[in-house]
């Protein structure tokens, strides 16, 4: 008996501050005007996507004392954007990245509960942490947390927020549906939390929202991040682009769920993915090369090289050879507000490898960055891309993808028009929304139902 086909989950990432977005393209729009967000969200909804995702940038990045050359002025506040999008969409989930290092549980829980009400049950929270003291300078608690304590605070932050969401659960809360008013006793919304990071008590003043709690996403790939996701998240992002790497990550994270009394289908694994489409595979490959060169200018290439060399390389020709000088491996970091420096655990080894590649292929600095940097995940005709996406999901390398177009806001349109219908024809993607909340779209149970299931067992 053949295994039934999995249903694919698709979401759309409104591009953040990075060189993936080609702002120089004539078709590129604004990063801050609401019309861009509205166009993007409406495209995702007509394609029947699960949700729209917003990343977060709390400070403009610097390098060499200057604002990083790829940064834009910034982005409006996440909750403001998502609340506005709730008014121009009906089904699309609304996911915001909110930091657990620089915020407080009460205010974040209140904001998400409000968004869940305003959107009729479509809110989701991507819980992130920050080790970055440079970003932390914007906050009273700037840089105070050692790296090893980030997940400790995040875990307690989420647990505390859940206590606030759940403080309106119980038989003591009655609603007069005719008037929309709530009849409650003094216990409704009351909370007390005492822990390592938070010692708070009071009354939560937002009633139980349609989803009970927002859907929770987690983005960490460390050991601590994987455990955090397995114990507390509804979905985890993955950065693995190949089938084998994706399968290994999928197997590892899903295998951790049982110890927390959870089933494999109670945590979704959703990698971010870029794409380039053409009428034929050959046309798409050619276009992908053009896009990649637009994404990596000479100035961008030098900045990326500086992440490894940890030195000012502005005097080097990006169309010339790699520096002969070795990377600076001291604790001083030339890049502020970026994690890339820490991603290269052995800069000297990376530099040696890159020099060997450049020599073997006669690559300039820019050529090297273009050929070793992040590539488009899905390149080809609509038929090829649809088939590849389905192959990944059916092979348990992911449960779906969060798509990141290189043009904002119209870059998602071609995927919605040409790839989604093919997935629908294969019977692996919805043709209509079957529920009203984001939990419905993702196949996730309501927290109250999960509580009853645990009590029964």
Automatic annotation (TrEMBL):
- The UniProt annotation places FMN binding at 97, 151, 222
This entry's Enzyme Commission designation comes to 1.14.-.-
Q: Name one GO molecular function term.
A: monooxygenase activity
> In the UniProt record, does the keyword Transmembrane occur?
no
Report keywords, A-Z: Flavoprotein, FMN, Monooxygenase, Oxidoreductase
Query: Which domain of life, per UniProt?
Result: Bacteria
The top EC class, named as a word, is: oxidoreductase
Name the Pfam families on file: Bac_luciferase (PF00296)
Asked if the record carries the keyword Protein biosynthesis, the reply is: no
Q: Return the CDD domains for the record.
A: Nitrilotriacetate_monoxgenase
Annotated family = Belongs to the NtaA/SnaA/DszA monooxygenase family.
Among NCBIfam families, the record links this protein to: FMN_nitrolo
Identification of the protein by name: NtaA/DmoA family FMN-dependent monooxygenase
The organism encoding this protein is Streptomyces spongiae
């Amino acid at each position: 008996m053949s295994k039934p086909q999995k249903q694919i989950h698709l979401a759309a990432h409104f591009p953040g501050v990075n060189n993936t977005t080609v702002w120089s393209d004539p078709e590129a729009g604004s990063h801050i005007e609401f019309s861009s967000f509205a166009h993007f969200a409406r495209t995702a909804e007509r394609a029947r996507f699960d949700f729209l995702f917003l990343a977060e940038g709390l400070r403009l990045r610097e390098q060499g004392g200057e604002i990083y050359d790829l940064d834009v002025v910034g982005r409006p506040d996440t909750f403001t954007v998502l609340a506005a999008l709730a008014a121009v969409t009906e089904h699309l989930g609304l996911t915001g990245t909110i930091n657990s290092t620089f915020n407080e549980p009460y205010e974040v829980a209140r904001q998400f509960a409000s968004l869940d009400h305003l959107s009729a049950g479509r809110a989701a929270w991507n819980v992130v942490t920050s080790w970055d003291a440079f970003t932390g300078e914007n906050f009273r608690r700037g840089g105070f947390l050692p790296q090893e304590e980030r997940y400790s605070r995040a875990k307690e932050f989420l647990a505390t927020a859940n206590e606030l969401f759940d403080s309106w659960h119980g038989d003591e809360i009655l609603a007069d549906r005719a008037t929309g008013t709530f009849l409650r006793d003094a216990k409704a919304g009351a909370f007390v939390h005492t822990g390592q990071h938070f010692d708070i008590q009071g009354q939560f003043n937002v009633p139980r929202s349609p989803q009970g709690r927002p859907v929770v996403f987690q983005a960490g790939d460390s050991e601590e991040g994987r455990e955090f996701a397995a114990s507390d998240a509804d979905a985890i992002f993955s950065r693995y682009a190949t089938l084998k790497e994706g399968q290994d990550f999928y197997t590892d994270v899903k295998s951790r769920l049982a110890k927390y009394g959870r089933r494999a289908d109670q945590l979704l694994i959703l990698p971010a993915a870029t794409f380039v489409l053409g009428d034929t595979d050959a046309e798409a490959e050619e276009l992908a090369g053009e896009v990649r060169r637009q994404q990596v200018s000479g100035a961008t290439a030098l900045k990326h090289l500086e992440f490894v060399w940890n030195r000012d390389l502005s005097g080097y020709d990006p169309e010339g050879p790699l520096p002969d000088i070795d990377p600076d491996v001291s604790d001083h970091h030339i890049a502020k507000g970026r994690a890339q420096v820490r991603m290269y655990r052995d800069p000297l080894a990376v530099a040696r490898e890159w020099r060997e590649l450049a020599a073997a292929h006669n690559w300039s600095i820019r050529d090297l960055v273009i050929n070793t940097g992040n590539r488009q995940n899905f390149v080809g005709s609509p038929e090829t891309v649809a088939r590849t996406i389905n192959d990944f999901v059916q092979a348990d390398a992911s449960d779906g993808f969060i798509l990141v177009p290189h043009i904002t806001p119209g870059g998602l349109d071609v995927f919605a028009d040409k790839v989604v219908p093919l997935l629908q024809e294969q019977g692996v993607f919805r043709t209509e929304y079957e529920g009203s909340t984001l939990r419905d779209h993702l196949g996730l149970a309501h927290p109250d139902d999960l509580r009853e299931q645990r009590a029964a067992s």
